[in-house]
Amino acid sequence: MASRYLQGSNFERRVIKSLRKQGMRAHRTAGSHTPIDIMAGSDGRSWGIQSQLDKYFPPLKVEALVDECKAYGAVAMLCWRGDKHEKYKIHFKEVNNGR
Which domains, ranges and CATH numbers included, belong to the chain? Predict the structure, then answer.
């Protein structure tokens, strides 16, 4: 079984592939040493995305994501994969002010 890090990085790559299919530009910030895992943009708008394999996002990570996105003028987004019945589904949620 792949390590949690490898599962996470593979999920990020799948998210990027999906965003690119929708006509967006997207790239991964490898290593996850910043609050933003994926930067994406299209038509003058940009998104900073924090991805997790499950739906739980620690509140401090969400606040850091919102702060980082404000600095770049980007919309803060959370992204996670579906549960075991829909593990190939990608979920997105916009966050404001860490909520």
Answer: 4-95 (3.40.1350.10)
